[in-house]
Write a structure and sequence with these properties.
mainly alpha
């Protein structure tokens, strides 16, 4: 009798142990076969599709004025629809995962794309894509680390990925402009730079004015936008929060944080780009790489 009771006890324990697992599997199966989210998504796309009416107006005006931009406009809108829809599904998947690895993967993907794009802008800078990528990674990673340590944002996908996207996009533009302008300034003032080097100046000292102008030019739009924020137009993050139902006071708090982090990340990325450009512009003997400035 004892062995039989013991076996029944084990069987019952196994049943209660497996019951949550079976329930979880059933829930997952229901989610996999539930397409209500797709219906909700399609219903929500009615307004974006309706908004294309203004695009058709722009296409008609382009055709009437013979600008030749009709096809490019249509392709741009189609790409925007497809790209944003895909990223929406990807973000929905990542937000549902409790794994920091997905955050880092999404962040690195954004940095790689941004580095490639900024490097293309400064295509005459040797190893431009590498310089841009490392600069953007450094500037945004340091800024994000400080924000997380200070508990400004929690380290969750819902916060980090959108914040990282704003910082990376802004740093991409600033880094590309910095690299391109620095090379152009050194090219036009090669005699001054070579004279300073001949007098014993280091590459940093010889190109101080060129670096200064490049960084100031790249950061000027970011600084000017920060100066006039809320006076000329409402920023995107603030507008999105208000339209989403948040109070204006809550929206401005987040927007202030956003403006601060954009300036911080952009400045770090821009300055880092100037440091990383020097090995491509100068030899180990502190001489200009003239072949870099021939084109």
């Amino acid at each position: 009798l004892y062995p039989m009771c013991h076996q029944i006890s084990i069987t019952m324990d196994s049943f209660f142990f497996l019951k949550p697992m079976l329930a979880s599997q059933n829930h997952t199966l229901q989610q996999a076969t539930d397409w209500s989210w797709m219906l909700e998504f399609l219903k929500g796309m009615v307004k974006p599709v309706a908004a294309t009416a203004v695009v058709f107006l722009a296409v008609a005006l382009s055709f009437y004025q013979k600008l030749g931009l009709e096809l490019e406009m249509v392709v741009a809108i189609l790409r925007a629809f497809i790209q944003l829809s895909i990223i929406g599904f990807v973000l929905q998947f990542i937000f549902n995962q409790d794994n920091a690895g997905w955050i880092l993967l999404a962040y690195l993907f954004m940095v790689i794309v941004a580095g490639y794009t900024a490097g293309q802008r400064a295509k005459n800078v040797p190893r431009g894509k590498y310089v841009a990528g490392v600069s953007i990674l450094t500037g945004t990673a340091v800024t994000m680390f400080v924000l997380v340590v200070l508990s400004v944002f929690p380290f969750t996908p819902r916060y980090i990925i959108p914040i990282a996207g704003m910082m990376v996009g802004n740093a991409m533009t600033v880094t590309g402009v910095t690299m391109k302008r620095l090379r152009e300034d050194i090219k036009t003032q090669m005699n001054l730079v070579e004279t300073a080097l001949a007098l014993g100046a280091t590459p940093r000292e010889a190109t101080h004015e060129q670096v200064k102008r490049a960084v100031i030019l790249a950061l000027s739009p970011v600084v000017d936008n920060t100066k006039t924020v809320g006076l000329i137009s409402l920023p995107g993050a603030m507008t999105g929060l208000i339209m989403g139902g948040a109070s204006p006071l809550e929206a401005i708090q987040l927007q202030i944080v956003v403006m601060n982090m954009l300036i911080g990340a952009a400045t770090l990325s821009s300055i880092m780009a100037t440091y990383l450009c020097w090995p491509a512009f100068f030899t180990k003997a502190y001489q200009l790489q003239t072949k870099v400035f021939l084109t």
